[in-house]
Amino acid sequence: MRIGNKEFDTITKTSIMGILNVTPDSFSDGGQFNEKDQALFQVEKMINEGADIIDIGGESTRPGFAPVSEQEEIQRTIPIIELIHERFDTIISIDTYKAVTAQAAILAGAAMVNDVWGFKRDEKMAEVVAKYGVACCLMHNRLNRDYDNFMGDVKTDLLRSVEIALKGGVDRGSIILDPGVGFGKSLNQNLETIGKVGSLKALGFPILLATSRKSVIGKTLNVEVDQRIEGTLVTTVMAVIAGCGFVRVHDVEANRRAIEMTRAIMEQSRY
Q: Residue 256 maps to which CATH number?
């Protein structure tokens, strides 16, 4: 698929989306990169380590997060996006569920919209993405955990997001799906999502797995946020084996090495 000015092989390669949170309250790196110089240093580091996309978020989505206004989100993200677009040849993604923020980010240089509500929170999101012809990642999310058939319901929910996108004029080839690990799911449901992520390929879209430093790892291994890299790497290996086109991570270099090692083994063993 094409995102911005770059082609992505989502069939035989797993590309890396590096995370840049310009928020004071992100669960993993809150406050570290909300200054311009710090943010640019981190972006350059991630690019040098192998990030294919930089995903910029101006509102934390951690449990118990405080929502921010569109104006505040724009003030946090747009100056950074403009600087990144000016200084680096990389694909920029905006992590938002608000159409106003998404449009401002696209005009500033973003080539992708990453929506944690899969276009279900703001009815104008699909219209904005379609208008500017950018890519989008539609994540699975729910306010409750009332599932009848867990993975079946996740697929149904994701297809509803796809329907919203297509009806709004979004090109089918611009859509990526994210099963939403850590959102609207119990610990066991999150583990099941990771283990069965490959089944989502049957929906006909590239899959992005985002597990980096999340609570499913912390609770499973009983470790704090800064000790979750090993657990993250295991999930990245599983994403590669499952055929995911993208992983969204904080620790780019370690995850790139895990991807390359997994791919080398798979190629030699005709996995």
A: 3.20.20.20
Contact (Cβ atoms closer than 8 angstroms) between residue 87 and residue 48: no
Number of domains in the chain: 1
- The residue among 34 and 257 whose pLDDT is bigger is 257
Specify whether 214 is catalytic. Answer: yes
Average pLDDT for residues 144-165, to the nearest whole number? 97
**pLDDT greater at residue 142 or residue 270:** 142
Does the reported pTM lie above 0.70? yes
- Kindly give, in sequence order, each residue whose CB lies less than 8 Å from that of residue 91, ignoring residues fewer than 6 positions away: 3, 4, 6, 52, 53, 54, 111, 112
Among candidate residues 98, 214, 228, 256, the one labeled active-site is 214
Residue 133 belongs to domain spanning:
10-269
4: in domain: no
> Is residue 248 flagged as an active site residue?
yes
Distance from C-alpha of 183 to C-alpha of 187, rounded to nearest angstrom: 10
Inter-residue contact 76 to 56 (CB < 8 Å): no
Which of 98, 155, 185, 248 is the catalytic position? 248
